[in-house]
Amino acid sequence: QVQLVESGGGLVQPGGSLRLSCAASGSIFSINGMGWYRQAPGKQRELVATITSGGRTNYADSVLGRFTISRDNAKNTVYLQMNSLKPEDTAVYYCNVDSLLRRPTLTRMYDLWGQGTQVTVSS
Fold first, then answer.
1. Which of 50, 61, 72, 75 sits CB 3.0–4.6 Å from 35 for a disulfide?
2. Distance of CA 23 to the CA centre of its chain
3. What is the share, in percent, of the chain residues with pLDDT greater than 70?
4. C-beta neighbour count of 60 within 10 angstroms
């Protein structure tokens, strides 16, 4: 069974920083794209940032220049460094894998999600 486990959320003051981590566990051969999405109360889930297996990144305009996505392919882990946090960044943050290959059968799995981690930016 493949699982995505997020960590690093919490309460932070405006202007502060947090680092989110998401580790994919299970028998994994390789992971394609990974990303972070968020959902604020009463709003739809939205893309925050994505990163390809080769390291190409994409960001929402609202976080460009403040957030940095990175990954460690050896650890099957994706990170989100969030700086200069604003109250409007408050949301549940979800990790996503768009596809991966499982060991040993090389079966492909699509669109996996973590359980979410709460980020609250407030004074």
1. 50
2. 10
3. 100
4. 15
